[in-house]
Amino acid sequence: MSDDIDVSDMGPVDYLVVEFPQVGMRGEGLPLLIDLVDRGIIRILDLLFITRQADGSVVGVDITDIDRDGRLDLEVFKGASSGLLGEDDINEAGSALEPGSSAGVLVYENLWAAPFASALRRNGARVVAGGRIPLSDVIDALEAAEARA
Known about the structure:
Elements: E1 13-20, H1 30-38, E2 42-52, E3 58-61, H2 87-95, E4 102-110, H3 114-122, H4 135-148
Antiparallel strand pairs: 1-4, 2-3, 2-4
């Protein structure tokens, strides 16, 4: 990890594997990702792009021109590599993809939660479980609650 990151002050670290459509990728999310970084909400620890070949193998993709339009879309993220992701992680992420598909693998620190997490650690607390609730589950639960009301 980078020498300028004090792990005792870090916030929770999450990851996303986002599969892109095989055609028509427009990069609309990139400015929003940059905005999250610029506003200090997240810190990108790792960002890489992979493709799952027809034979099931997973290969890296150059992140400088992901939509192949000749513009360097992701140059700002070039070199975003903390070393957290190993070959096994990359292959596991790739196994979730349809053959012929590409994905972005993003590991990020939640800077917004860092002061809270740091205070908890200083007081001897530790997170013993965590996770994400899929949006579809949230919608289903809200609709079921509304139907009961």
